[in-house]
Fold each of these.
Amino acid sequence: MNEKTALLIIDVQVGIVEAESGHVFNSEALLTNINQIISDARLREIPILYVQDLDVAPQESKEFQIHPAIAPLESDRIIHKVATDAFHGTNLHEELQAIGANHLVIVGCKTEYCVDTTCRRATTLGYDVTLVADAHSTTDNKVLKAEQIINHHNANLHGLDNIDKFIIVRKVEDSVMEPIHNNYR
């Protein structure tokens, strides 16, 4: 099977990364790691799609904007969403189909909401997913620290499969743009 990769950057918006209630866990490393992945994608001419959550803040506000540390180029696609699932009510699936993508590298915020839901949904839509272990983040909740939430999701999502497609969790330094799913089929 010929693999076509796309990079999906979920909700890395100023109002999430630098929220007044507290920055996401390890925000500087998160942005550095995402930048490294973006650079690799650009070198390999891999399509980059940014997802913005319309519920974060008014669209004209600074908080709504994609974090300037990872700002998109004009050639990058931007998808607006209102649900935790980046596919629900958006044209994301159609955009990915149009470019022939069947492997998604996923990074972003927040781990237990939009990242988790989009990873799971992607597999049911026919995509293999590489979740980058050190390029998604969240904040503490009433029960768990952000680092625990991230580690929990990295452990639980690794190997999660739906029919023929599944999620592999890899670190930034693992050449995440190169799909390895077929090694496990």
Amino acid sequence: MSYKHKKVITIGIVSELTGLSERQIRYYEERRLIEPERTRGGTRKFSFTDVEKLVEIANQMEDGLQTAEIRRLEQKAQQQKDAKVRDQMIRGQLNAAFPNRNKS
């Protein structure tokens, strides 16, 4: 796992890095725009990827988007990414099953 995806940053540090208040960060979590992990004690832990995502969310909010719109855009982007991965996997399976099909 890349260091960018490890959930090790507390909400206070995330607040300092992003300029968002802890309240805003918790609100984005409530709206399911961000999903921090929780320690046994309930402390939120974020990754650098989460920090980047929060900055993007803040920029979208400043541009006038609502949280529901941001979530919809994110879901659409994820669906497109999933479709691309699925297509690559199918192509790989076809190439493995028919290794000479692209050769002239």
Amino acid sequence: MGIEEYGGGQNPGVDVLVVTTDDVPGYRVERVIGEVFGLTVRSRHLGSQIGAGLKSMVGGELRGLTKTLVETRNQAMARLVDQAAARGANAVLAIRFDVTEAADVGTEVCAYGTAVVVAQA
């Protein structure tokens, strides 16, 4: 797998800026819309679970699970951006991710932040 398969972030051309900070240098917040989130739950496929079990005995990265988690995180981020845009935001501040096990059958990933309208200062 190449490095691009392990990365994340926004795709070019997206109209909603997403940042982990509480503000954006050079911009001012004109309006706070409120909390937005993107949520997804992914189940693990049997082959990757068996492979992960074997790999955990000898140590090392679980590449199949890593790739699945990256895809899941990116899907949660895309849903967050879609929700923010639908509510009229052009930015999401203070984005965070929450990852939990979902009833021992999968992984839940939630991206959340504060949707706002920003303008250049």
Amino acid sequence: MNKTIALLITLDTKEQEAAFLVDEIKKLGDLPLLMDIGVVGEPGTPPDITREEIALEGGKPIHELLKNPTREEASPVMVQGCIKILNRKIMSGEVDAVLGLGGTQGTSTCCNIMQALPYGFPKIMVSTIAAGDMSGFVGIKDITMMFSVSDILRLNPFTRKILANAAAAASGMAGVETKFLMEKGDKPLIGMTNLGVLTKGAIEAINYIEENGYEVIVFHAVGSGGRAMEQMMKEGIIGAVFDYAMGEIADDVWHVLRAGGPERLTVAGKLGIPQVLCPGGAEHLGILVEEHEIPEAFRDHKQVFHSPVIFVPRLNSEEMIRVADDILKRLQYTKNKAYFMFPLKGVGRYSIPGGVLHDPEADAAFFDHLRKNLPANIEVVEMDTHAEDPVFVKKAVDLLIELIEEN
């Protein structure tokens, strides 16, 4: 059955590339839906959805944008218009994948649109800047970035091949039969955070969750992972959470590698989602450095390199209390009953007895500060184990299932 591929292209500058992609998609047996996201110039090839239609959906007629056209004014209008049109067509089954082309500005516009589309829906961005840091463009959505290598400025033998590959990728993704459909049932999908220093415990948790008849989706808690989990809570995909890793909170206090942002650790509480919490990995930071470089501010700390370019300093007692205060600030939004697990022998593999970051005094200061200041509705569960101990993990899962079944 024919699939429909939406194409996000500025037709005043990339009309040749657009026409080529339209032909390639038709050769593959699919249907192109060409959307003109340009503003200033007239389209060089006819679109299926015009810039006029998109601008109107975005809240401002194109003739108003053209009075004194600026990217700052036009881009948000075109982005919102495309989001409305595409989400409507996705919901009605009229579009099966989206493919964008662009340089710096086009990548920003297309990716802003793609970030507002559903998880699992195929999103491909052919970009001149895809070889750089794409975190700001991908955000927390499943966008596939494809480096164009050369500029996207007229056709040549090389760009034809790149664009043909992109068309084939979009067609292939659109035709995949596996769907991401969450059916409402008695048992919610559980979200769980994880870090490398907790992976053995995470595997134990996954197995035990599945033994109890639930499914779990695990997020690497490196900033984007925690934010993605919480976005899925907002979208109703995730209905319970074992927040096993809180390194994103520690890194947010110092604004370093795994920073989870200001909303992290607040969403489940605001939504009333059952949650069990564990401060896994919150006793250290992850700092991106030049290979084996030790930042001056942490030379007197216990330390280890997680990789040659990821420096990991152990936080001392005073610094651990700063992390605890930040956790407490975020948990003020938790109104329902929740559990906070204290693994007294270490919150991660580095800090267990004998570990390179073992510091029982700093751990004790951290736990004591939390114990004294957590809201009354968050019950502390202390265990004389480390965070990866199967006994600890199973207790956390049992408590989460108890909360789910109480709801």
